[in-house]
Design brief:
With about 180 residues, the protein is of the alpha+beta class. It has 3 helices and 10 strands. It has one domain.
Length: about 180
């Protein structure tokens, strides 16, 4: 199976896109602003979105605190209890090889733990992919209001439910060509 992110042009509020599971639109995505324009692969760890025009393998991983902390006191009757338990244990998908350049093999890349997880604003990200329902102005204590994505915990929980039973997939990342 191949999932896709089709990105809008990047801004300093972030890199927003449409996330597809297979060919079906699923949600909005949020990544850090695109600072990969200098042609030097790997120097933007934790500061930039993952490079586009590439397909990345993704695998199910466990024990990721960014996910477990988001779901510690969360409940949603629409989410399967088994999936809720997985979320509380930090289960998610890791994007492998997110800055290996043009190599065909996934090997020692300087970015690691590039994850799918809940995030409303770029301050919630360190190079990962956030998932949410809509794009809107989001307020956060201690920060100026800025563009972000809504309902990230509900959306990510629904994503993990949709991916139940799937341990690996491919993720294609492109900018919208329109």
């Amino acid at each position: 199976m191949t999932n896709k992110i089709i990105r809008e042009p990047s801004t300093m509020d972030g890199t927003f896109g449409d996330y597809y599971i297979g060919d079906d639109f699923f949600c909005k995505s949020l990544e850090l602003p695109d600072l990969n324009f200098d042609g030097i692969i790997g120097d933007e760890k934790g500061q930039s979105c993952i490079p586009a025009s590439k397909t990345y393998p993704c695998k199910r991983v466990f024990g990721k605190h960014v996910v477990a902390n988001a779901y510690k006191n969360y409940s949603n009757p629409d989410i399967d209890p088994e999936v809720m338990e997985q979320l509380k244990n930090g289960e998610t998908f890791e994007i492998l090889g997110a800055d290996c350049g043009e190599t065909s093999e996934v090997k020692s890349c300087s970015r690691d733990s590039v994850l799918h997880h809940p995030a409303n604003r770029i301050e919630d990200l360190k190079g990962c992919v956030g998932m949410g329902k809509d794009i809107s102005i989001i307020e956060k204590k201690g920060f100026e209001p800025r563009k972000g994505i809504t309902s990230s915990r509900d959306t990510f929980a629904a994503f993990m439910q949709e991916m139940k039973g799937i341990n690996e997939f491919q993720l294609r990342v492109d900018y919208d060509s329109n």
